[in-house]
Amino acid sequence: MILLSLLLAATPPVMLEPNAGSANRLHPRRVTASSFLENGWNKHAQNYLPLYIADDDPATAWVEGAKGRGEGEAIEWWGPELSRAKTYRLFLRNGFQKSEKLFRANARPRKVKLEPLVQGETGPQTTGTALEMELKDVLGWQEVRLPVPNKVHGVRLTLVSTYPGTSYDDTCLSDFRVYVEGEDPYKPEAEAAAFEQVRAFALERKQAAARSGSAAKMEWAPRYEVEKLLTLERSYEEGEPPRGNTYAVGLFSTVPVKDSYKSALDRAKKVAELFDRASLDYEGQDSEARAKWTRVKPAQPKAQTTSARTALSAMESDGIVRIAGLLHLGDASFFEADASQAQMLASIEKLDKKEAQQTKACISKCEKRRAGTREDSYDCSCADECMGCDDPNLPASEKLKHQVTGGDFLLGSLARPTAFLRGKSELSGSRESWYAFRQTLVTYAGEKADVVLTNDHTDMMMEGTVALRIHVIDWGESNGKASPTTITSFLVSETRVQVLRYRPAPRA
Q: What keywords are annotated for this sequence in UniProt (predicted)?
């Protein structure tokens, strides 16, 4: 139940470095904002984007992009899904702390409202009790403790009032760290991977700033906003595809037809048909991609991925972001893969034998160490301990098996393909870790991507979640480059249908 009352807290202390004690640090999976500053200074370095609050660098900052000093603007930090959380310990570097001069020149948050968030079926939802806090107008870190419900996914910071800048009205926030106190198992490898994504993003932006120009064939708008065209909740029986239909075609046959998205739906249905024929869930000749397409290694520019991550921050799924550099064939390159299936299978067999020997030795050593003690005094058996107990490490041979299951496949020539299909297993989960198999299908109309389909196995196994996402892209031109003007997204499962449309957000 959401509590509407606000707790007014005392002014936070200032410190040189955060000291979170035994709390565990979390890193964002995405950061979104109601606006950010767009101007000439921002064009290449992109120092004003929302994600920069997570890079631990005071020389970068989120800067709101509204008129005036941005009271009412908000930024949302989304981390792992927690189910046994107690408190978020938040550490902020207020203002633009690249230098004391810039700190004073720009506006700074004064009073802020902090709200715990969960990802609801229709979008972000506040939960628990909001907290209003007045920040100090000083350099350095400040801590705010925010009690949160057990189930929490993130936090929203809203600017209530601001300290004026001596030169500019732009309100800045340099850094925002989140630590958690609670009983959820901590996953250091997952948090390290999330932080690496932030660091890679920041590095690419610095490299982009150093480049004299860009030869990229496409350009993203700075930010896209979402419009909801349809949200349909239904029973499993109502959404069950008609018998005789294949998986994706069957799901999309249940999507209601409306004039606002009819043409996009027709294009989506054609790609659903192709996916059902080519899906890597099938083996051998049963998969058109395995049987007839070319196995390839794609090369895509990292700059497109980082640009898309910011532009599409309003998009919950990162399916398009991960292949953003493949959306225009003028930016992408494809090469035939040199590792054969037989070579990979031989490597798996060799690794299996080696790992079996290592596991046997580990179990023997464990049993000797535990000799004379009660078995129930340990959390798991020796066999499980050697696999990591509740936090298992996937053996190298299993990782290679996932590569064999998936891969990158191309329909058409290397220079001018008509479709690209990727099957890739990735570590997923915030409380428990598992490898999830994601397929991404891109179809092309000339040089530009026409439709992007993503399908995650974990989504299929969780009742009520999105089983299939298809994004239909329409293109225009910006600064002499191709640029997506609308993206119509169909999110479909047996119990829910959503149709969303993303367009470039108007500049403030």
A: Signal
